[in-house]
Amino acid sequence: MPIPRPIPAVDVETLEKQLVDEKLLIMLRKKLQEIGFDGNACMPGQYNGLLCPSCKGGDSEEKSLSLHITEDGSAAVWTCFRAKCGWKGTTRAYADVRSTFETMSKITRIKQATRIITEESLGLEPLCNELLAYFAERMISGETLRRNAVLQKRTGNQIVIAFTYRRNGELVSCKYRDITKKFWQEADTEKIFYGLDDIKEASDIIIVEGEMDKLAMEEAGFKNCVSVPDGAPPKVSNKALPSEEEDTKYKYLWNCKDYTAKASRIILATDGDPPGQALAEELARRLGRERCWRVKWPKKNDSESFKDANEVLMYMGPDALREVIENAELYPIRGLFNFKDYFDEIDDYYHQSLGFELGVSTGWRALNELYNVVPGELTIVTGVPNSGKSEWIDALLCNINHSVGWKFALCSMENKVREHARKLLEKHIRKPFFDVRYGESVERMSVEELEQGKKWLSDSFSLIRCENDCLPSINWVLDLARIAVLRHGVNGLVIDPYNELDHQRPPNQTETEYVSQMLTKIKRFAQHHGCHVWFVAHPRQLHNWIGGPPNMYDISGSAHFINKCDNGIVIHRNRDPEAGPVDLVQVCVRKVRNKVIGTIGDAYLSYNRVTGEYSDIDAAALIKKHRA
Questions:
Q1: CA-based, 20 to 30 A from 213: which of 29, 52, 135, 466?
Q2: Contact partners, residue 375, CB within 8 Å, separation at least 6
Q3: Where's the Toprim domain (predicted)?
């Protein structure tokens, strides 16, 4: 049976203004039936809960769509509140169907309350025994129902539940629910929280999604609880927070702001489904995340949790519901965390189950005591020209690839592609690319070895190269590196060298400020993608250089190179035959931020000019032998 429209106690002139134009209503209902609605079941001036023609209510056939017909019967608007649907639309008696948010918002614009209603004018009466039994099945006592003035209303041949919305004890609005969970509200009444008087002087308040949940909270001992009047949105809005005048969907918050403003702690106990989570986020945006808390509903079984407060009360009892509220957690604020948010990660770190968090071996015994490669860190590498910085990094990448299979993105702007390929292949195959000059009498790699090596290059490395005449910017490099991480699973990035990048900066920005900002971008990229970055930076011109390794503070541009990096390494090759073997390479580890993976010190390697390989040596014995 259709539910008759409630007739407020007003004068004859007002009644005449509210009469429905039957012709318009007939035309509108015909359009609604063409769309898929049961137009005859919907009365003007009411919000009607229906089965959505678009999603059919999902597997549970939930009546998730709310349809409203205007007072004069000329237009209708609807919204499906299922998270996987969210269908919205409008239609008019003399217009086409439209699914636009703009039209809907105009038609459903919330007006200031113009009606004065009373229990008598609405025909409300005490709950019958049948409805008292219905509530008892849901663990809601008669005492709680009486204190919250839950009443009933006879409409046609059925009796529906009437949730009375009050401020200072006076009736402001009324929301109805039948036994099939169909809801509608009195038209042209002010939107406020259900149970508003219960939070009048409360410093802690609880906000739930439905009136039944408000009553359930009281059974668990929490009277300082209110329910929203309109349910939850299908998803969080991606638009900026509207002004008070334009925030029609959440008008009840603004109408009750004098009550919520006094609260120092607001527990958002909305439903556990996606719309409920979206409602919690929308409430937190408006109330202030800094004073909001959220609940975690207990597990129902291995795959799902309880949905709301009334479910917990029914199946687990008031003590369990009380425990849920008492264990509410701070609402997350972007950028603000607690150590407990990372306990799982800390446990994995302790048990060494994260993978490479203790560092990947460099492949050289002597260097492993000083430096290991950790995902998400930044290593600055410097050294005088021709000291072998790039050669050493290439050898390091080959070692890591051979031992753990890492892949790398190479932004090596001083190397031609063919030359870089030659250097990497020689280290990988351990044979010279050519048999002339540096190749001496060593057998060069065969064609078959070359073909296998080319496949290894293709599988292990991505190239970041700027083919234009202009210099690449750091943003350009990092954007492509990000793609390489996502597309090719890259674990490491080499930027070689700093002075080949475009360093244009605003006139009012110093080079020191620019370098600091640039290194911050690189570190964020490394941390976010778990990608180790090696950044080669040349030292400034050394006027009084006497042949020793330079200092990290000698890097051209800024002291931030050593201040902001995780690891700082100087590569130095002996150039004086009288001082020692010319193939002796000194790896000077000058900074290690994390003591777990290394420490400051020097390691010595032997450089094979033919293949470009570096190998462990007993440096002291080698120097002693050379001097002898």
A1: 52
A2: 355, 356, 357, 491, 530, 531, 532
A3: 203-308
